[in-house]
């Protein structure tokens, strides 16, 4: 019997793929309407995404098969959804990030900041969190974590070595951590207990430093539109569901909303991790005491050595830095909203809107990176063929892009946009909206808080991209039905999808940190549970304060009206019709 169950478990993916579509067949067979057909597709894809019976990107291709065969959309309409402007922005932004990674510019930035901040315990954790968060704003959260973790462990090993050199009562005031039961005055620690104490201190600092890296990678990604994929899912869903929105979610508006949220959440996470792993003695955590300079040199030297190994900035690093700064400036000034951007002035359509998008800028800079040489222009010789000359390679080559580009995420994004469009075309969105109208009697802040908690819980065991892809179209329909600004619920839920702090499988950064050892699932769950609550509260604060003037969340916009007269006359949630 045990062998039978083991066999079934071994073949569980095959069984799920075969049985689930058959098990769900009564829905489209009994209710023969487009809404039911679309619901069948969405439920099937949701279950496949949750169980990962098929690769996420393969499941994302289902609309190309199911929607035309069920009469929901033409195949040509479905395929267009797989490479929309948001996908182009994701593609272009990743090419820039790949270039930054390829030339090790991110490592130079990280080491420079750590040299400035120093290696006192509390500041060491803050330094790694600030650097990791900043880098994950622009490059992959996974790549940032994979780069920062070895640096952190090298520093920790040096710290542990410096502890071993401390003899007798010559304690290290800089790196000594707060103990739960300190010894009484006048008693001398035994050598064995002192050694165990130092080992426990090192383990706790190691755990805190490891968790601060993976948490800050997830937190930093929310600050920019290209920082993490759910942000782009939101932009794509808004543009797909509400074509007349006037590009309300762009790089500048998102940054104005999400960056302060990220800063507050990062600082609160730092305080929480410091209390949890370093104790309440903040004076000791910040390294005030005699002998501090001598004790911190060993760890500081590790960072300094790593920085020296990079050597002076190469021509390629300088070129990438300049292009990256130009990219950010162009993103911020294209269509900022509070003044006329270069897109509104030079490339405006008949309505005064910028015809160039953030994706246009990302692709423009990416193409330049394929043109600019990685060395000062000149000719170099082949080592194996001394007589043959060749030019230096470009900053970015297609071989590098092909190796590092996560094509599966590009397909996954497209599948989400196809689902949203299918829900709209089939009438499923309107049906869901009608069923959710009782929610108009709940205060909007309470609605947003409950939804954030739901998404934050769901994303612990499901891909954050799949989570936002499934929930955002439903939330948009709900907002239309109760005459609430769609972004009032879509923005916080998108951020909440990045609050995956409790489980190693929740995000790749969590898994990388867990694989390094020294952590148990209970350690991550204990630290992540309260951090999830803190994150939901910070997001709720953000959506009810500084995001209101940025996105006009106190109005029900005309571009979201599904039944204008009903909203204007009977909505208890909206104030005035907005633009």
UniProtKB/TrEMBL annotation:
Location relative to the cell = Membrane
Q: Does the keyword NAD apply?
A: no
One GO BP annotation of this record: cellular response to lithium ion
User: How is the protein disposed in the membrane?
Assistant: Multi-pass membrane protein
* InterPro entries for the chain: Na/sul_symport_CS, SLC13A/DASS
TM stretches of this protein: 12-31, 43-67, 87-105, 112-139, 251-273, 315-333, 353-372, 470-489, 495-517, 529-548
Q: Which UniProt keywords apply?
A: Ion transport, Membrane, Sodium, Sodium transport, Symport, Transmembrane, Transmembrane helix, Transport
Q: Which Pfam families match?
A: Na_sulph_symp
Give the chief site where it resides.
Answer: membrane
Q: Name one GO cellular component term.
A: plasma membrane
What residue spans carry the region label Disordered? 163-192
One example of the protein's molecular function in GO is: sodium:dicarboxylate symporter activity
Q: Which family does this protein fall into?
A: Belongs to the SLC13A/DASS transporter (TC 2.A.47) family. NADC subfamily.
Q: What is this protein called?
A: Solute carrier family 13 (sodium-dependent dicarboxylate transporter), member 2
Gene source species: Nannospalax galili
